[in-house]
TrEMBL record, chain A:
GO terms for cellular component: ATP-binding cassette (ABC) transporter complex; periplasmic space. Keywords: Signal, Transport. Belongs to the bacterial solute-binding protein 5 family. Residues 1-28 form the signal peptide. This is ABC transporter substrate-binding protein.
UniProtKB/TrEMBL annotation, chain B:
The keyword Transmembrane applies. InterPro entries: BP-dependent_transpt_permease (IPR050366), MetI-like (IPR000515), MetI-like_sf (IPR035906), OppC_N (IPR025966). It is found in: Cell membrane. GO terms for cellular component: plasma membrane. Residues 98-287 form the ABC transmembrane type-1 domain. This is ABC transporter permease. Belongs to the binding-protein-dependent transport system permease family. It is a multi-pass membrane protein. The chain crosses the membrane at residues 31-53, 102-126, 138-156, 225-244, 264-287. It comes from Sediminivirga luteola.
């Protein structure tokens, strides 16, 4: 997963060594534009409003959720997660694993063509993965154990790994950042503006800051979509997006203010869905600074924070309080409820640590308004145990910079689009983890996380991660706050749309009913 | 000539304006109060300033007392102006934000006034290349939309109340420079200034004793109007998240927070909005009245009306 909506790829690279899917920007704070319908709007064109413009359309380079909302419909991966986030065949029809677990053989689908008419073959897979690894692109870390990718036949690919890698399928199929691209398209550089994939829709046209227009791919291997195409327009202001949806200017949007969910769900003209997502939001304290290096102080903070209030004000009933990262809906969920709101206990821990008062520089981002809201509640909570919180609201680029420099006492942020438990914990809490900005180091946790990467038995693996997560939460490496919901709304005439907890937006199975 | 200069300078320089400052100001105050809109503006301002200064004692709740179960409560006996999305008392926050707003406005306009008038007077009096450089620089600053320039400055300095003050100060500096320069240009040709110059009064003394008092009228008017715009600018910057940092209250920030709740909690937007409206209106009314009083032509009209 990538850290939330970075808009600039340059920044992305610093973070990315993390876990699974997609960086996202539900409410990114850019200035809202009007809704321009762009291409001659036909009745059969799905008009989707997303929160902002993609920075670029190269799936291997971008880390913007806005880009992936579009690219989900343009590209394919070898395997892809179904609605339960289990990996299913896509461009690969089947696969075998060697006895020693070190060689994976993928049998590719035959007769698939790229949007430019060229055939999809094993060479494209080799090219795509080699590009990611050799150019050290944003997602190279996902293929860290991959030693070689070879085409053993026109439609057979072998992936050799250095150690058993039980989550290889998630690594290569978790999201469209691992898409199979066309070599010509990528080498010419056109891919950033004019991507060519094998997916259900092909890129037709775009206008900067205005729209992206996708056309149905009649030769799609999964069957041609029923609609003519999809047009993505950008509306950052949720209330504007909802107004556009109500007036029929757009058919679909994920720019929905949580406080309006209740009112909107009573609106007959709109279909609104909420689904607990695989994202989580957390507070992290800088363990290289006093007094946050003392785990008793961090635990005191964990006891003092009122998670229920935070979930209420950020989600209005759509966010689910969680003391670990993985939501209850995930097969990897582990129960944990050590911290209850207990100012008395918090005060005791502070006394034990010998800290009577402290000031906390808490860093949040205007691009994620939920962090600003949560920070205000936390500031109020912590005042009760003698911690004076000063909130610093930054734009995401500065926020990331300061995080990397360690210029903070504490920060609030979220990780989005996680699938495998390795996505949730490794990069953030392994002492060598690339996203361990808080400076956490616990040899026991390192050992468990390393073991989890290689464990093939699923039950045993679940136990390893549950154990690691418990230690992480006990030590308050991250102070987990809640899992938000995916909230999406669409017009009733748009049928067949399935909302997904990993926030992938797929329009291939939708249809538009004639207006009555 | 040059040897005579100090003595001559000290003895001379009977500028008409400085001669009778007390009497002039007194009558200006009286005239100001006699204008109904000016008096109304002044009264509102006085109340506002009093409220801002005593806000911390007047406010029934702390500005950051979060009470989530009581969030979004409509105006009632308990919370006169309702509560916001975190359950904070809107009345207390509006009141305390007045302190912040006025503080920002005063400091930023003071910066603009001091810097702008200094440069304007020097440029206007010196003329030549100095005038050219100073005023073209002011033109460059002017060419930027005000908010854009302020945004850039805050972006560089990082969001904080001090950056907002500096940003607004910088943005309004060229306006003061222009006003001061224009008035200086005409004063420079006045016989008493020419006379002082001929007698060798040092330049700094001419500027201080003859020019500055002479341009105080237009500058005063500009000050009161700029105060109004400074308050608007602060609200705009805070609305954009670059001004006063949460959780500290600010009218602009409160409006921003209210956006998502317009349909369900009108009080969150209406009261901070009203506060901005009333304050800006009051400063503008006072500014207009001051202009009428200090403009000689307008002034004689008012005076003749009163005599009748």
């Amino acid at each position: 997963m990538r850290k939330h909506r970075q808009r600039r790829n340059r920044l992305a690279r610093t973070l990315v060594a993390a876990a699974s899917a997609v960086s996202l920007s539900l409410l990114a704070g850019c200035v809202g534009e009007g809704v321009d319908l762009g291409p001659a709007s036909s009745d059969r064109l799905v008009r989707a409003a997303i929160g902002g413009a993609p920075d670029q359309l190269d799936p291997h380079q971008t880390s913007s959720y806005f880009s992936f909302q579009v690219l989900e419909n343009v590209y394919d991966t070898l395997v892809e997660p179904d609605e339960n986030l289990q990996m299913q065949p896509a461009l690969a029809e089947s696969w075998d694993i060697s006895e020693d677990q070190l060689t994976w053989t993928f049998h590719l689908r035959e007769g698939v063509t790229f949007h430019d008419g060229s055939d999809f073959t094993a060479e494209d897979v080799v090219y795509s993965y080699t590009r990611i690894i050799d150019e050290e692109l944003a997602n190279a870390w996902r293929l860290a154990t991959v030693e070689e990718v070879t085409a053993t036949g026109e439609y057979t690919v072998e992936i050799g790994v250095s150690q058993p890698t039980p989550n290889l399928l998630t690594a290569i199929g978790g999201f469209k950042g691992m898409a199979i691209v066309s070599e010509d398209n990528a080498e010419s550089g056109d891919i950033a503006q004019h991507p060519i994939g094998t997916g259900p829709f092909s890129f037709r046209d775009s206008r900067d800051g205005d729209y992206i227009w996708l056309e149905s791919n009649p030769d799609y291997w999964g069957g041609a979509p029923a609609v003519d195409g999809v047009q993505f327009s950008y509306i950052s202001e949720p209330t504007t997006a909802i107004a556009a949806l109500r007036s029929g200017e757009v058919d679909w949007t994920d720019s929905v203010p949580p406080q309006q969910v209740e009112a909107l769900s009573r609106d007959q003209a709109i279909a609104l869905d909420t689904l607990v997502s695989t994202d989580y939001w957390y507070l992290a304290m800088n363990q290289d600074r006093e007094p946050w290096s003392d785990e008793r102080v961090r635990q005191a903070v964990a006891y003092a924070v009122d998670r229920d209030s935070i979930a209420q004000v950020v989600g209005y009933g759509t966010a689910v309080v969680n003391q670990l990262a993985i939501p209850e809906t995930s097969p990897w969920y582990a129960a944990y409820d050590r911290y209850s709101l207990d100012p008395g206990q918090a005060q005791e821990l502070m006394d034990e640590a010998g800290v009577s008062e402290a000031s906390m520089d808490l860093m949040v981002s205007t691009d994620y308004p939920e962090t600003v809201t949560a920070a205000q509640v936390i500031a109020d909570n912590l005042a009760a145990i003698g911690i004076d919180v000063s909130i610093r609201t930054l734009d995401m680029a500065t926020w990331l910079d300061d995080q990397d420099q360690g210029e903070f006492d504490a920060l609030i942020m979220g990780w989005l689009g996680n699938l495998d438990p390795d996505d949730y914990y490794y990069a953030q809490h392994h002492s060598e983890g690339p996203s361990n900005a808080q400076g956490y180091a616990n040899p026991d946790v390192d050992e468990l996380l390393d073991a989890g990467r290689q464990e093939l038995d699923e039950d045993r693996r679940r136990e390893l991660y549950a154990e690691a997560a418990t230690l992480i939460a006990d030590d308050v490496s991250y102070l987990y706050l809640y899992n938000p919901s995916v909230i999406q709304a669409h017009a009733q005439r748009l049928t067949g749309y399935e909302m997904r907890s990993d926030r992938a937006v797929r329009f291939r199975d939708v249809n538009l009913e004639e207006d009555a | 000539m040059s040897q005579l200069a100090p003595g001559a300078g000290a003895a001379s320089g009977p500028a008409p304006e400085t001669g009778t400052p007390g009497s002039r100001r007194a009558s200006a105050w009286r005239l100001l109060l006699s204008s109904p809109t000016g008096a109304a503006g002044l009264v509102v301002l006085a109340v506002l300033i009093l409220a801002a200064v005593t806000a911390r004692w007047l406010a029934p709740y702390g500005p950051n007392d979060i009470d989530v179960p009581n969030a979004l409560a409509p105006p009632s006996g308990r919370n006169w102006l309702g509560t916001d999305e975190l359950g904070r008392d809107v009345f207390s926050r509006v009141l305390l934000a007045a302190e912040v707003s006025l503080q920002v406005a005063l400091v930023s306009v003071a910066i603009a006034l001091v810097v702008g008038v200094t440069f304007g007077v020097i440029a206007g009096y010196a003329g030549g290349w100095l005038d050219l450089v100073v005023m073209r620089s002011a033109d460059v600053l002017f060419a930027f939309p005000i908010l854009l320039l302020a945004l850039a400055i805050v972006a560089i300095q990082g969001p904080a109340i001090s950056s907002v003050m500096i940003a607004i100060g910088v943005v309004y500096t060229p306006i003061f420079a222009r006003v001061a320069r224009a008035s200086t240009l005409s004063l420079r040709q006045e016989p008493y200034v020419q006379a002082a110059r001929t007698m060798g009064v040092p330049t700094w003394q001419i500027l201080l004793r003859h020019i500055l008092p002479g341009i105080s009228g237009p500058v005063t008017v500009q000050t009161s109007i700029s105060l109004a715009f400074a308050i608007l600018s602060e609200a705009a910057l805070s609305f954009l998240g670059l001004g006063v940092q949460p959780p500290n209250p600010s009218w602009g920030r409160m409006l921003f927070d209210a956006q998502g709740f317009l349909a369900s909690a009108w009080w969150m937007a209406v009261f901070p909005g009203l506060a901005i409206l009333v304050t800006v209106l009051a400063f503008n009314l006072v500014g207009d009245a001051v202009r009428d009083v200090l403009d000689p032509r307008q002034r004689s009209m008012i005076e003749s009306r009163r005599k009748r």
